Amino acid sequence: MKQVQWFPGHMFKSLREIKEKIKLMDIVYLLVDARLPFSSMNPEILKIVGDKPTLLLFNKIDLSDRKTLDYWIKYYEDMGFYTLLINSNNGFNVDKIYSRSKEILKDKIERAQAKGMTFKVIRGMILGIPNVGKSTLINKMVSKKVANTANKPGVTKSQQWIKINPHFELLDTPGVLWPKFDDEKVGFALACTGAIKDDTLPINEVVLYLINYLKKFYPKRLMERYQLENIDALTEVEIMDLIAEKQGALLKGGFTDYDRVYQTLLKDTRNRMLGPLSFDHDQTTL
């Protein structure tokens, strides 16, 4: 795969605005996809955050392989991050974000009070890549739609302040990627989960990577979902041909309709039809 670049103009602007606004924040919330805690962590954002108090939020935990997720939780906690598992769709642990923030900022609040200052409002910035669930999370936190959402990347295009409660305000920001993915595995992982637009990478390459990955780490799931047997010796294309037969994704003459197979595999992957997955199994695979 050639070096991937996907960096629209609004993302460059967003990075600049994040650098300007972050010094005004009490705390930063980094939202990552629990299926790919490494690949969905923007290295440019990490540089900007620096030593600012940061709560790392693992979202979409219902879609993630918990055993592998536990590895990454420890990985980031060893780096000094505070962590919290959440699900922005059903609200799991969302109500704990504010109380967790107060715990993290306890020393800062006490120092302010010791100087006779009133620490009235916690101001935070929520950061993450496209389609990681920032707007859905904010809507869940305020129990109404205040941020635009869609199951595709790049919906939020500008920053906006959201008042969560009288003592808690969040700055919602557009999803930001980094200018280029030097590691092709990161690009493919983002593509498989829908974090980047489907036309960013050749879809056939994405699906070939996906099948190879599932064959390596989740062969039983792949076989059970598509009623396959003995796939060890099969190529990715041969597996797609078998899936096409099972799913009836055939053109006239009995030829495989690869476009339909591509869409089936991506949809099933993203909608948990293959079970909870991880696309960042451990550092040795990166």
Q: What does it look like?
A:
- With 286 residues, the chain is an alpha/beta fold.
- The protein has 2 domains: 9-172, P-loop containing nucleotide triphosphate hydrolases (Rossmann fold, 3-Layer(aba) Sandwich); 202-285, Conserved Hypothetical Protein Ylqf, Chain: A, domain 2 (Orthogonal Bundle).
- It is 41% helix and 12% strand.
- The chain contains 11 helices and 6 strands.
- A 6-stranded mixed sheet has the order 3-2-1-4-6-5, with helices on both faces.
- Strand 1 (27-33), helix 2 and strand 2 (54-59) form a beta-alpha-beta unit.
- Helix 7 packs across helix 8 (203-217).
- It is elongated, with a radius of gyration of 21 Å.
Structural class by SSE content: alpha/beta
Specify Rg, calculated over alpha carbons: 21 Å
Helix segment count? 11
What's the CATH topology label of the largest domain? Rossmann fold
CATH class of the largest domain, named Alpha Beta
Helicity, as a percent range? 40-55%
- CATH architecture assignment of the largest domain: 3-Layer(aba) Sandwich
What are the segments in which pLDDT stays under 50 over at least 5 consecutive residues? 149-156
Proportion of β residues? 5-15%
Q: Averaged pLDDT, please? A: 88
